[in-house]
Amino acid sequence: MGTIKDYRNMVEQPWGRMFYELIYKQLNIPEENKIRILDFGAGFCITANHYAKNHEVIAVEPNEEMHNLRVEGNNYTLIPQGLEYLKSISDNSIDVVLCHNVLEYVENREAVLEQLVRVVKPEGILSVIKHNLFGRVMGSAVLGDNPQAALDLLNDVSEDSMFGNRSVYSNESLIEALSQKMSLSDTYGIRVFFGLSSNNEIKFTNEWYQPMLELEIKASAMEEFKKIAFFNHLIFKKKLL
Hints:
Order of helices and strands: HHEHEHEHEHEHHEEHEHHE
Radius of gyration: 17 Å
Distance between the termini: 45 Å
Strand content: 15-25%
Number of helices: 11
Mean pLDDT: 92
Structural class: alpha/beta
Low-confidence stretches: none
CATH class: Alpha Beta
C-alpha cells in the first residue's frame, strides 16, 4: 500500500495527467460564463485549481497531509473540513458539484449524497467519479498480476487503502439513490486501457500519449468499454421540482 506522497507523485505522471484530461473533456464546462463550483473531497486540489482559472471554486478537503501537497496557482478557497461544512452551505446555491473518488471511503454515503444534492441549483450538475468493480478486477489480474486479489474482488472481499476501507458500490445503486431529485445525463469510462500496461517508460513519449488519449476519449463513451473501465464517471442534472 502506497503513501499519500506516492499518490501525489503518481498524479504528476503521464497516466495521472491523462486521468484529469479525461475528466475535463467529459465535464465540458464552458470557460466564458463564471459559475460556482464545489469540489467535495478535493484531494490535492488539482481539479479545483484547474477550474479556478475561470470560475469561483470551493475545495473541501479534511486531510491535512493532502493540503500540504496541494496544487496552487489559481485562486480557489480551501475548506479543511468535510460533511460539517457541506451542511452549512445554502440550498440550491452551487452550479456544479464535483465528488470524485470520495463516496467509497465515507462512513455514511447516503447522508453525504443528500447534502450534495441539496446544495446543487435546479438544473445544476453533480459529477461523481467512482471505482468500477470490473475495472478493478481487470487491474488486479492484468496490471497487478494478482489473480487472487481479482478473485477477492469478485467474491466481495473488502479492500484496504491508504484512505481506509474502500467500499465499491454499483452505478445502479447510485442512480437509484439520486432518482427522486437528479436525472442521469451521461456516463463515461475512465482508464479503460492506459492503466493495464506496466511499461511505464513508453508512457512518457508523445507517440504513446496522444493516441492513447484519443483512444480513451473514444472508448469512454462506448457501453462495452464503460463496463471494464477502472473508473466510471456519472454526470447528473438536478430536476426542476
